[in-house]
Structure formats: structure tokens, C-alpha cells
From TrEMBL:
Its EC number is 3.6.3.-. The gene is lptB_2. GO terms for molecular function: ATP binding; ATP hydrolysis activity; L-isoleucine transmembrane transporter activity; L-phenylalanine transmembrane transporter activity; L-valine transmembrane transporter activity. The keyword Glycosyltransferase does not apply. This is ABC transporter ATP-binding protein. Keywords: ATP-binding, Hydrolase, Nucleotide-binding, Transport. Residues 4-252 form the ABC transporter domain. InterPro entries: AAA+_ATPase, ABC_AA/LPS_Transport, ABC_transporter-like_ATP-bd, BCA_ABC_TP_C, P-loop_NTPase. It comes from Acetobacterium wieringae.
Length: 252
């Protein structure tokens, strides 16, 4: 079953075509890598899929519903969440508060209940706290729950971003270079965790990553873009030996 699809999406910035008629079909529970050299258009594709940019042309469907012109917030509510290449946490909130903000989008009480601190409010608050702590525990971050985001080590901040993206209960999770700046051990551990959460939450994961080896290790399918176009698509083995991919990465 297709959960997210893009048809001929194109993004032009003035005279520059950053993404040119890109197509995508993500099935339920797939773990797919989106790779390509610097400036290939990967982040622009993510920005279109998540409502940050409205494509110049093309259609995007999330669970059979068009999400063209929907806001990023609406798209999160419809089931697709993401992380950013540059960490975007609320630096002066604690780890668990960061996760709770995303979780609260889905919480079942209204403003009046919140203002007057009704019993339902407290019941839901307790549940929110427990669910958010469970998410932190998945990333081995329980001990950092009350640490301000800005005081977390860098690798933990990256993990917290993913935990926060999961708190909105997505069907599709898009990760923009989740291991950027991590050391090899942290990276290996994160890749295992991404595999684990895909299975545990039964979600589809689309992952941008620079490190080819790393993507090859966990993705079942890889899409390679260069100059805004798909130049190859296939299993890690197919991609590894594709002459167009080798040329794009190594140059002529
Ligand atoms: N807001 C923008 N305005 C103008 N040009 C842009 C904008 N965003 C991206 N571009 C250009 O679009 C092209 C694709 O950029 P994009 O950031 O999507 O590539 P990328 O594959 O994510 O690169 P990297 O791996 O370096 O992050 C680049 O030429 C970039 O300079």
C-alpha cells in the first residue's frame, strides 16, 4: 500500500530548477534512502513533501489525500513528520518538554480543561508524560529527561529530534541527515535504532544521508538524485554498482 507519493514534483528558485519532475512512491513500512551529492536537491524534496515549500508543479499524496498547499503543521497532523539537517529543538526546554510539545498536538483535552486544570487535564498530562518518557527510553535518553536541550551532548540532541518527531504518531517519518556530526559509534547505534523504530511503530522511513555506506547498511531501497533528477533507484547492491551513481559521486 502506498502511503506517500509524489508525481512530477518540481521546484524552481528563480532561474534554478532545484528539483525537476521528481517521482516517489513509499509503501507502508519501507525504509528508503534518498542520497545524492551536495546540492542535488534532497532537502528541497523533503521541504516539498513536508509543506515547507509549495512545488512549482506536481502532486503529492499522503494516504490518498493531496497535501499540496497544506501547511507543515497540517501535514504533521495528517501523519508525516520530519527532522531537520540543522537541529531545531527548543533549546531552553528540557528533553521531555521538547517531546511533549509534539505530543500535545494529539492530546485529548480542550483549552478550557487546560485552563481550569480539570481531572481530565491531569489524567491526560500524566499519560503524556509517561508516553514521552517511553519515547526517550527507546533512545536511551531517560536519564536526560530533565536536562535542558541546549545542555545535551550533540548526539543526544539529534536523537531527541527523532523522539520528538515520533511523538506526533506519524505514519511516515522523514529524517534529514540524522547522523550528521555523529561519531562512527553513535552513527552505528543510531542506524540500529532507526531500524528498530521502523518495526516497533510500523512506520515508513525516508532518510537523507550523505554517508553511502551507512545508507547501504539499513535501507531496503535507495533513490539517488543528482541535479534535481532521479538518476538511479534500487536495492543497495544495485545502487553500489550503478555506473551513473559512481559517476555522480566521484565525478568523471
Ligand atoms: N531557498 C532556496 N533558494 C534558492 N536556491 C535554493 C534554495 N534552497 C535550495 N536551493 C538550491 O537548490 C539546489 C538543491 O539544494 P538542496 O539543499 O535541496 O540540495 P541537497 O541535496 O539537500 O544538498 P546538501 O546535501 O548539500 O544538503 C542547490 O543548488 C541549492 O543551492
Amino acid at each position: 500500500m502506498t502511503v506517500l507519493s509524489a508525481k512530477n514534483i518540481t521546484m524552481q528558485f528563480g532561474g534554478l530548477t532545484a528539483v525537476d519532475q521528481f517521482n516517489l512512491e513509499l509503501s507502508a513500512n519501507e525504509l528508503v534512502g534518498l542520497i545524492g551529492p551536495n546540492g542535488a536537491g534532497k532537502t528541497t524534496i523533503f521541504n516539498m513533501l513536508t509543506g515547507v515549500y509549495v512545488p512549482t508543479m506536481g502532486e503529492i499524496m499522503l494516504n490518498d489525500q493531496s497535501i499540496i498547499k497544506k501547511t507543515p503543521h497540517e501535514i504533521v497532523k495528517l501523519g508525516a513528520s520530519r527532522t531537520f539537517q540543522n537541529i531545531r529543538l527548543f533549546k531552553d526546554l528540557t528533553a521531555v518538554e521538547n517531546v511533549k510539545i509534539a505530543y500535545h498536538n494529539f492530546i485529548d483535552y480542550n483549552m478550557v480543561q487546560g485552563m481550569f486544570r480539570t481531572k481530565k487535564f491531569w489524567t491526560e498530562e500524566k499519560k503524556a508524560h509517561e508516553e514521552c518518557m517511553k519515547l526517550l527510553d527507546i533512545f536511551d535518553m531517560g536519564e536526560y529527561a530533565d536536562t535542558l536541550a541546549k545542555n545535551l551532548p550533540y548526539g543526544q540532541q539529534r536523537k531527541l529530534e527523532i523522539a520528538r518527531a515520533l511523538a506526533s504518531d506519524p505514519k511516515v517519518l522523514m529524517l534529514d541527515e540524522p547522523a550528521a556530526g555523529m561519531n562512527p559509534n553513535e552513527t552505528a547505534e543510531l542506524m540500529e535504532t532507526i531500524h528498530f523504530i521502523r518495526n516497533k511503530f510500523d512506520i515508513t522511513v525516508l532518510l537523507i544521508e550523505h554517508d553511502m555506506k551507512l545508507v547501504m547498511g539499513i535501507c531496503e531501497r535507495i533513490i539517488v538524485v543528482d541535479y534535481g533528477k532521479t538518476i538511479a533507484e534500487g536495492t543497495p547492491d544495485e545502487i553500489k554498482n550503478n555506473p551513473d551513481v559512481i559517476r555522480a559521486y566521484l565525478g568523471d
